[in-house]
């Protein structure tokens, strides 16, 4: 507002030229104004704006002498002002008088109140209000009520939100606007209107009594006057003198205040104690609510006291400004002096031969590197760099320590201190990238999108360490790369599989020969940003050797509470890694140390079902492999039946890496077959040159070159519609050129002289190239010719399972699989009940077999009390394949069913598989790996599944294509399994 007042005075000089009122001539000579006149050092009257000067260094004697010498001139000026005061006053006399304005248009002031005697430019955006002000000015009723706007409830008046508040005020009308206005304001004369800018001059205080009109807001007002006061009161005098003294101190320090004082004193009328209080509050930079408090105060002493507090604050601010300016000036002068001395020292050392050019160039290189990062680099790092640069200047270039220091500075200055890449938290963009790179994995994608959404709401994505767990080949590493693409972060990957040296993570000490920083420092140097996405691969395969425990060293790296000040042994300065997003991968999370696992958020990737593998093979693997082998789409066809046979009989694992290897094997054999037939997709420069030299002849049967190019373009477009890589496109253009040349020769064969170069020595070669090549078709019938004999046989050994055999479901690190549990009777005799176990079973599985025998015996006694099978039979339980280690409790119910089937001589229902842990009382406990086991059941064409009831929620969360076509039963006790396996169909849920 203060700057605006000064600006308004400069813009409207004719309006702002005013002489003091005649009625105030007596008070002009009062002691108050005499003292205030010394603010300018006595060089001219305060009220004579044309001679206004500010000299803070003038002495008291000079002030008195100047004041006495100009007293007569001042009296003459006052007398002259009596004659033409009306003509020169900026306050235009109106009819009726000011006291008659009891109803005024309310003009909201958003930033500061208007004090009497001061100008203020205001921008009016409400067109109705602006039109009303213009009409008032035309009727010579150029007055309005200026009222300060209250802050909204719950907002801090010290926080600047000017644009928002103005926008909200413009939308308010009538009573809503009246509620937002302070009751006490100022009667303001409208001195000029230019566009939407209205310049106001304050006259006297007003108080709103009631609303007259809503739009524009017109209110009834009462004119306020100061409470009576004794101008000879000592307390008031002392307070006013203190205000003047404080103002004088501030004026010495701030030239901006001098301009405000000079502008104000050119247009002020009578100057007294109330005006002094208004003057101090108006030109201060205080909070608008404090200024409003001064405006509302009618007691002169209290108003002076409030103003004194404001100007005292301004004096403290001026002192603080001076100290800041002095500190900056000293710093700048010190830097300049240091720079000058350094340059002189360099020149002296160069003349004396004390410094080599190599050392100077090194120092200059390091300083140039760090110069651009100086603002973002932490102060402790800058201090270390300066110390090392000083040390470098003192070391001999041939010493070993010189090389250590040089390498150390090289690492310190190359790191991206404070350099962050802008993150992209657009979930739609992330969804698009994830769908482009990966098929299926809907639950994993959903979890990653949730993570990105939380990052968008927080504004940052650090604080979480994601661990992608799953079998090999399911795309854990590529998912990490896709997350980096989605977030627009740099990507860096390093594997910790088999890592046994802590120095790989924390760095070596600089004292060692060949010392290097740790992987994280190398990562920051490589990516060039301080917030990359770091993929730590194979974290479940960490080693532990004589050099320490890397898993414990990773705790500091991954813990969000510790990596804010990560300390690398080589750099020996703290590095902030809190902005780095860590993504870890593991095959088996049980192998990860618990303290490390506790800091991670696990996202399990179970694997792909057959349908998903078909899509991945067709849309991703086959396309990329074909491009990598340089084969065109029209040269080969791999049928769906071949892909399905490849997946079922060769690549049953959960991932697709082995599937990719088999597809590459197929295409390599196809490439060899095509080359043996004489196909070459390489660019042929000779053919291109022949095509360029073809010219049309004058014969009627000649083909114009434009037609050749047109036909070539059409064929090129048809080929380009297929998805091929740039190298294949280039090869297509060459082949099209060859076909065009061949077409020219064959078309113009009857006219021997139509083309001068039509019969050249390369005719036989072109015929060989253009010979029709038969497309290679890979079907299930000839798949063995490309990839050999099937690796896997059908998991279902029996079409109808015999007595004593039941199919179970198992989870492995490679995904899910089915396994048969077979029980047979070895020997029978009274009291010969026993159990023999084979199949390389673990301890837990052996215990499950013993529990199964006990539970099966109890159930058999319940169902067939006379059957003494378990008491008199020696049983042999086997779980093929015998070479594969097996362990886990979830085969308990399958073992019981196998034993009961043998005991009762009944086979189980066809196409049935089950899983679940059993207690001695026959309760079925939940199991793990629901998705993997479901996939294994689908692969073996199982139609009926039995799961523990506690796993129903896990099954419901599976994708619909995983559980499609399966009849699933959820059971709580083994009695329910008995009924399902041998008799009824209770508790069925069909998907």
From TrEMBL:
Annotated Lon proteolytic domain residues: 800-984
Protein's name according to its UniProt entry: Lon protease homolog, mitochondrial
Reactions catalysed: Hydrolysis of proteins in presence of ATP
GO molecular function: ATP binding; ATP hydrolysis activity; ATP-dependent peptidase activity; sequence-specific DNA binding; serine-type endopeptidase activity
Source organism of this protein record: Urochloa decumbens
Entry keyword annotation includes Zinc: no
Places the protein is found: Mitochondrion matrix
Main location: mitochondrion
Record keyword Protease present: yes
């Amino acid at each position: 507002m203060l700057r605006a007042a000064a600006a308004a005075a400069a813009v409207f000089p004719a309006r702002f030229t005013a002489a003091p009122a005649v009625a105030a001539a007596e008070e002009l000579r009062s002691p108050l104004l005499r003292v205030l006149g010394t603010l300018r050092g006595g060089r001219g009257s305060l009220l004579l704006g044309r001679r206004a000067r500010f000299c803070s260094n003038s002495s008291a004697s000079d002030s008195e002498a100047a004041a006495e010498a100009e007293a007569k001139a001042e009296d003459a000026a006052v007398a002259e002002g009596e004659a033409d005061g009306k003509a020169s006053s900026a306050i235009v006399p109106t009819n009726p008088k000011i006291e008659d304005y009891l109803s005024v248009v309310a003009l909201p002031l958003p930033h500061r109140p208007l004090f009497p005697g001061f100008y203020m430019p205001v921008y009016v955006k409400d067109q109705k209000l602006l039109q009303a002000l213009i009409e008032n000015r035309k009727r010579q009723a150029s007055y309005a009520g200026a009222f300060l706007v209250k802050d909204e409830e719950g907002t801090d008046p010290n926080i600047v939100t000017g644009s928002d508040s103005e926008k909200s005020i413009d939308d308010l009308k009538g009573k809503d606007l009246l509620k937002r206005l302070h009751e006490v304001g100022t009667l303001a004369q409208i001195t000029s209107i230019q566009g939407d800018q209205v310049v106001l001059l304050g006259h006297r205080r007003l108080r709103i009594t009631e609303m007259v009109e809503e739009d524009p807001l017109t209110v009834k007002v009462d004119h306020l006057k100061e409470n009576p006061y004794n101008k000879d009161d000592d307390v008031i005098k002392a307070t006013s003198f203190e205000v003047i003294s404080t103002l004088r101190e501030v004026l010495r320090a701030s030239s901006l205040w001098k301009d405000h004082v000079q502008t104000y004193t050119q247009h002020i009328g009578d100057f007294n104690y109330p005006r002094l209080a208004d003057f101090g509050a108006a030109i201060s930079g205080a909070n608008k609510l404090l200024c409003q408090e001064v405006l509302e105060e009618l007691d002169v002493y209290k108003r002076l006291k409030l103003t004194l507090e404001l100007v005292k604050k301004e004096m403290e601010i001026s002192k603080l400004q001076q100290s800041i300016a002095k500190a900056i000036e000293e710093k700048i002068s010190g830097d300049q002096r240091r720079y000058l001395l350094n340059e002189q020292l360099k020149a002296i050392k160069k003349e004396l031969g004390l410094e080599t050019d190599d050392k100077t160039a090194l120092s200059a290189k390091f300083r140039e590197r760090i110069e651009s990062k100086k603002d973002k680099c932490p102060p402790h790092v800058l201090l270390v760099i300066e110390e090392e640069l000083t040390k470098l200047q003192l070391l001999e270039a041939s010493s070993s320590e010189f090389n250590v220091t040089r390498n150390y500075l090289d690492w310190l200055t190359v790191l991206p201190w404070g350099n962050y890449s802008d993150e992209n938290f657009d979930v739609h963009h992330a969804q698009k990238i994830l769908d482009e790179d990966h098929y299926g994995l809907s639950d994993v994608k959903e979890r990653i999108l949730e993570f990105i959404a939380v990052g968008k709401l927080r504004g940052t994505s650090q604080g979480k360490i994601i661990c992608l767990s799953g079998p090999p080949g399911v795309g854990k590493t590529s998912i990490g790369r896709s997350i980096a693409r989605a977030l627009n972060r740099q990507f860096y990957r390093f594997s910790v599989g088999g890592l046994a040296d802590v120095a790989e993570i924390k760095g070596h000490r600089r004292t060692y020969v060949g010392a290097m920083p740790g992987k994280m420092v190398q990562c920051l140097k490589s990516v060039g940003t301080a917030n990359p996405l770091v993929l730590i691969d194979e974290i479940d395969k960490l080693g532990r050797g004589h050099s320490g425990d890397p898993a414990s060293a990773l705790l500091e790296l991954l813990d969000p509470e510790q990596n804010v000040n990560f300390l690398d042994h080589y750099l020996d300065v703290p590095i902030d890694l809190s902005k780095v997003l860590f993504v870890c991968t593991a095959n088996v999370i049980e192998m990860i140390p618990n303290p490390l696992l506790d800091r991670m958020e696990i996202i399990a990737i179970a694997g792909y079902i057959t349908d998903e593998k078909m899509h991945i093979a067709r849309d991703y693997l086959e396309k990329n492999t074909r491009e990598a082998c340089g084969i065109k789409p029209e040269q080969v066809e791999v049928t769906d039946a071949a892909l399905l046979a490849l997946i079922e009989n060769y690549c049953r694992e959960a991932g697709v890496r082995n599937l990719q290897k088999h597809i590459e094997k197929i295409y390599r054999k196809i490439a060899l077959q095509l080359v043996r037939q004489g196909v070459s997709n390489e660019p042929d420069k000779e053919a291109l040159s022949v095509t360029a030299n073809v010219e049309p002849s004058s014969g009627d049967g000649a083909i114009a070159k434009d037609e050749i190019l047109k036909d070539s373009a059409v064929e090129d477009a048809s080929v380009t519609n297929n998805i091929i890589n740039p190298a294949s496109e280039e090869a297509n253009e060459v082949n099209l050129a060859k076909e065009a040349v061949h077409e020219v020769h064959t078309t113009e064969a009857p006219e021997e002289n139509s083309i001068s170069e039509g019969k050249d020595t390369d005719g036989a070669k072109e015929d060989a190239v253009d010979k029709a090549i038969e497309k290679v078709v890979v079907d299930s019938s000839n798949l063995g010719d490309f990839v050999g004999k099937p690796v896997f046989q059908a998991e279902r050994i029996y079409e109808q399972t015999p007595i004593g055999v039941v199919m179970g479901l198992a989870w492995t690190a490679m995904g899910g699989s089915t396994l048969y549990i077979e029980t047979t009777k070895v020997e029978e005799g009274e009291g010969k009940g026993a159990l023999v176990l084979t199949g390389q079973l673990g301890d837990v599985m052996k215990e499950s077999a013993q529990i199964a025998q006990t539970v099966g015996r109890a159930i058999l006694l319940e169902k067939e009390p006379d059957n003494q099978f378990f008491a008199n039979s020696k049983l042999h339980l086997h779980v093929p394949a015998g070479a594969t280690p097996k362990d886990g409790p979830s085969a308990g119910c399958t073992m019981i069913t196998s034993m009961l089937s043998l005991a009762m001589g009944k086979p189980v229902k066809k196409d049935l598989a089950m899983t679940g842990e059993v207690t001695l009382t026959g309760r079925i406990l939940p199991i793990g790996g629901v998705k993997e086991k479901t996939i294994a059941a689908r692969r073996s064409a199982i139609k009926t599944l039995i799961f523990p009831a506690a796993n129903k929620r896990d099954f419901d969360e599976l994708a619909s294509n995983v559980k499609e076509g399966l009849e699933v039963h959820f059971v709580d006790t083994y009695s329910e399994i008995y009924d399902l396996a041998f008799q009824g169909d209770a508790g069925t849920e069909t998907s």
